[in-house]
Design a protein that fits this description.
alpha/beta, five-stranded parallel β-sheet
Length: 260
């Protein structure tokens, strides 16, 4: 039995998790796929057999929600474990260093750790690339995923290098300390029609619509799911994202992103 836990705001990590699942199942494996928020709600944090984790790189480290998930995870019955991080550029990171420390504190070890470079969705640092460049990037990500899943099937003990760990750690600690401020500049424009999709897609239930307009409740993780999934493209972070393209992985539906 293989259990794959994933976290995905716009579909990059979910698509990678699904492709790993499909390949493993095509090779006779029994695979269960669960989102991290879904698993926490169900109490499904005691997996057996092979266990994988697929998630995005946030602030050059583990996503804040993933940190909560890993603290509650029991891996005493796990065999081979692997982690896959999707990101726009993985060379500056402390994610796997952090995850190995979490595992060691639980008396176990992370078996393998892989990066898949794909579309960056963090608009404050740069726009989503135009169509042709985006398609090239997604093709490379798919090819990379195939390489990763082959190593997973062979239970490879491979850990990819990370660089600028100290700087990454300092940035992440700053974000953790100022988490209540992460959504302070989020806003919905006049085109908002109160559809509520932003609230539905939020993995930490940080958005309410008391008067038909989204209000952020200050426990945001800045996954940017609300911004990218908004059908009116009216959610922005101050002025930094105005005019930027929105993104959802072309093979992932909005409905799939609501599984939490």
């Amino acid at each position: 039995m293989t259990t794959i836990y994933y976290l995905s705001a716009t579909g990059n990590s979910l698509q990678a998790a699904k492709r790993i699942q499909e390949t493993l199942e095509g090779n006779g494996k029994n695979v269960r796929l669960l989102s991290m928020p879904e698993a926490l709600q169900m109490g499904e944090v005691h997996p057996e057999g092979d266990v994988g984790f697929v998630m995005p790189l946030h602030f050059f480290a583990l996503p804040l929600l993933a940190e909560t998930f890993f603290q509650k995870l029991d891996l005493q019955q796990a065999d081979y474990t692997f982690a896959v991080m999707t990101c726009g550029w993985h060379y500056m990171s402390d994610a796997f260093h952090e995850l190995r420390k979490i595992f060691a504190a639980k008396g176990t070890r992370l078996g393998a750790a892989f990066y898949i470079d794909t579309i960056s969705i963090y608009l404050p640092l740069g726009d989503v690339p135009p169509k042709e460049k985006k398609q090239r990037c997604l093709r490379k990500a798919t090819a990379r995923t195939e390489v990763v899943v082959e190593k997973i099937m062979q239970h490879k003990a491979e850990h990819e290098n990370e660089y600028l760990n100290l700087l990454s750690r300092l940035i992440h600690h700053y974000v953790q300390k100022h988490r209540a401020e992460l959504d302070k500049n989020f806003q919905a424009g006049e085109d908002c029609n109160g559809c509520g999709l932003c609230a539905a897609v939020c993995p930490v239930e940080n958005i309410t619509l008391p008067k038909g307009k989204p209000i952020w409740q200050h426990h945001c993780t800045q996954c940017l799911g609300c911004l990218h999934v908004c059908p009116q493209k009216t959610i922005d972070i101050g002025k930094s994202t105005i005019g930027c393209r929105r993104y959802r992985h072309p093979e992932i539906t909005v409905k799939e992103l609501l599984r939490h």
